[in-house]
């Protein structure tokens, strides 16, 4: 969420009827996410072949054939304003009428559906789906023609973005997975800190997601990253739901051990033993309506962590510790892939 949205209403009532579960969120693909990140200007074709309104359909035929294109924007020579489009379908109609010498304005389409170069790609995808069109003229801030967007441009642009993602992520993984190799100390560790706000459902799960990604980059295997991610997610949501002012999560990553410390300053847990029982919850009805408060948070943490310590005092707060132990070559940050073998430069 952008900074301008910081005053957005985050009360539980705001989410009624709009609950997004972990399962639903997990189905959002990177391609779908990119559609909300890439601008139309990032993927459109800006090298255009245009014609002016004084050309004939014969000129259209020659231009399409020589450039292997299926649509031509018609632009005013003086103002550079977009006047219309001539497509392959228009040309076929012209040929069927044996009217190849006609002025192109006779056949061009003037009722155009356009998009803005500064809009996100998702807006163009909506228009493609709604109209069934194969191409969309793109206008700049001044309303003049900036490019053409086709479905092929969208596909190629997304593939380029995914390739860039992959290369960038591989570089990050290689650098992170060798983090501790050249550091000389008796005990090296990386500490990650996150502040969790009370009732901040908008960012719920953000910290656990970032920690999971960091572990994967450091070379942790997927199963370990998943266990740590689930444990921290449950603790994160407990801070959002059950605390008075939120709390903090500290993650200490060492080659052979991951320690997670979760603190808050109230209201505390009245009966820790009861809170550890599956299905026990003190969540309000309002929280339950949002799909939370099933009473499985602490039991899930206990199942994921190798060691768990929970201490709480009424009116003073709660301190939760999770430990995850790595064995043998299954270490992080020392050049291992997490698959039981040492990484080489070629593997990275």
Automatic annotation (TrEMBL):
Q: Which InterPro entries match?
A: CBS_dom, CBS_dom_sf, CBS_domain-containing, HATPase_C_sf, HATPase_dom
Boundaries of every CBS domain copy: 44-102, 108-166
Gene Ontology MF terms? kinase activity
Keywords from the named record: CBS domain, Kinase, Repeat, Transferase
Gene3D superfamilies attached here? CBS-domain (3.10.580.10), Histidine kinase-like ATPase, C-terminal domain (3.30.565.10)
Pfam family name, one:
HATPase_c
Provide the protein name: Histidine kinase-like protein
Taxonomic path: Bacteria, Bacillati, Chloroflexota, Anaerolineae, Anaerolineales
